[in-house]
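Retro notes - structure team

What went well: the batch runner handled both jobs without manual restarts.
What didn't: labels got mixed up in the shared folder, which is why I'm recording both outputs here explicitly, each with its sequence directly above its tokens.

Job 1
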Amino acid sequence: MSKEKERAHELLLESPEGIARLLKSAAHPARMKILALLAQEERDFSSLLRQSGLSKNALVNHLERMMENGLVRRESRGRYALTEDGRELVAAAADVYRGSVRRREDQKDRLRMLYDPGYSGGGGMMHKLVGNAGVYQPCWLSFTGAVAGCLKALGIECDTVDVGGMSGYSFLINVAKGRTCPSGPTAMPSETWEEVRKGVGNLGFELGHWEDNASYPSVPGSPTPEEIKKAEKLFEMVRKEIDRIDRPVVLWGLGAPEYGIVNGYDNKSYIVSTFRGLIGQPDDPVLYYDLKATGCMDLVWFGDRIKIDEKGALNDALVRALRFARGEMPKCRGYDSGPAALTEWARVLESGEGREYFGNSYVGACVAESREMCTEFMSRMSRKFEGERSRDLSEASKHYARGAKLMGQFTKLFPFAFEGEMKQADCKKGAEILRNVRRAEEKAIECIERAIES
């Protein structure tokens, strides 16, 4: 080991807290953007406000955090500049990231050459795009957005509200006990997912399904040869299904642990439509072994078109919605669902024992959106019926609207981000909001119960 590396190693052992604090002060996308802007030249507050796209309060908070840790200094006349520490940190971060990206690409090229005999650095041996490609629909609940996009491509007049409502999925609130992690919206056992798919069938297509109940890869970014063989088997299944019926399919783990649409293949890559298209990122093809399928490998395809008994389908949807809303469906060990989930979420948020910013911001966004979906779905259902049942469903819609409004307040406290500050006052207020959402949920459930009874 060189003397320089020895000194760095000693420093890391002697001052881990100080180094972690310094890195944490820059470890936020907004702060990195501010540092990058200041690396170009000194800027005044109004210029940073305009070019960063942040709110005034957010920009003030980020600048103060970086000034406290010696990365930024305030010059005269309200201008800001990088310190020498800030300039060195930006340069070092850029170098490390550039090397990391290059190493990841090199690893992908090595894997291509090992496991894809037809790879030659470009082009492809096989190519197919379905006749009617699905477009991922804007939705935090990625299963709903992907399925709605496929059904629209297959000629079904529906949207994410129809998919979330008929399947019961939008009525579910599911959170981990003792820790607010982002897994809640998708962490459900196979039996519960089967019920979701059964509900989707009431929109006009029979769904086929295949799954493997193991994460792929077991170590993120490093699939084993055995795992790659499993991924190749899945790719062949998708390819054959697309060749056979010329329809898009829904696949878990495309670019992130989320559902997306596969519209075809190019050599051994999936041609996809995912949430990335909604945030301005390119929907590049995904190599068959480059999935990020946390928890399981999961594939859904669309089989035969089926004739629907509308009245029976609507009654079925009401019963399913009630079971999901009550939290009666099977759940994974260590999770709460239904109104009880809101109480557990509030308890963790207030106590601080296992709260995570990303978990609160992501689950909060999903629950806020799904309450809006429940509001609209109950309103649509009320127009399908008459008399007392119609009034009960309309009343349920109003209670869900109240819950959606409250969750909107929650998402303002914890806007979606991978990292963020969780002030005790905000956590206390957030817990109070969640308890009020529970009351709105319980009122809505009572209305659905009355509608079913009538």
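Job 2
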Amino acid sequence: MSANAAARPAAPAAAAGFPYAVLALAWLTAFSSRSNTISVGPVLPLIQTDLGLSYAQAGFLFSIPALMMGLFSIPSGLIIARLGVKPVLLMSLTLLALGGGLRALAGNGAALFVFTGLLGAGIGLVQPALPRLIKDRFTHNTGVMTGIYSNGFAVGATTAAALAVPVLVPFSGALTWRGPFIIWAGIVGLTALAWLFVPSGQSRGGESLAPFARIFRSRICWLASGIFLTQSLLFYILNSWLTSYYQSLGFSLATAASTVALLSAAAIVFGFAGPALSDRTGRRPPFILAGVGSVLGVVGLILWPRVYWLWPLLIGSATSVLFTTGFVIPVDVARADEVGAFTGLMLTVGFGGVVVGPPLVGFLRDATGSHLYGLLVMLAIAAGQLWLTLIMPETSPRHR
């Protein structure tokens, strides 16, 4: 994989077929994938009480989706190469709607874990398809375009976290925590129906699988994957245990749950600003600033937790910059037929490693009765993240 080959446009300068409609649906797809995942965190105490889950068991509700995302990211790239982007989008959204909706029917922890795995498979398939969509249809200002659709991840997470306890649970009546799952799954179903009316575009399948071998030899891909892993670990650990942490400090459920909403709310601005800014400054400066922000945010949670609104905002800003700008890296350095492979490997490492994060922190909480040791684990992750951002080379064709 050469930088010059990567920099050459592999698709026409103009998007093929309803570009703004495609971008809007990409945004809604991102919204749907994240709202279904984050909808668990705010209602986790209700699920634990209803189904009798321990802290360690409850952690699997966050690690299972991450594991499935990791397992299905590379297969997503393979399917894109053979069938094209649109079939992958339809397949993934169908699985996401089924898994997300069936969680509302779970009568025990085992069933909830199975349906959560189905949901995670859908998200694992969809995420590599979105960068390829941008590569195929938009060749200019790829950071801005990535920032626009990936803003859907942030808005989806924020909406799911903010509305769960004060609005959706009371609205659901006797369904309590099950009601939000049904609502978010319905939105995914409508999104899948809308994609049926969108032309296939540039990627129609039938491509060689050789790019997958080339990507595995890319140092940049492995560094990007490591950075993606650290932000995923911090984000999912905090979504798992931030509510419980603040409840243990004496905060009400509503206030404690609001910290998860704050974690995601920061991403609405910075999830777009990171990629957009990186079009001007290069990718490295936003990465390094995000690494610093993660370290400061975790230190704040440990030393000054009563400032409950600031640290989730800071860490949410940092992880969102790394998350969304990370999706620009494959568009920068990979050819069109390599984007699925690059993104698939990045997500496999980034989400596959998360499987140990929330359960480990939950185990430490069960074993010690304190959240401190989990916070120290997060501090180590944040320090590793900062180091990776410092050694990551510039990838933007405009600045390298």
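One thing worth noting from job 2: Residues 1-17 have pLDDT under 50 and may be disordered.
We'll revisit the folder naming next retro.
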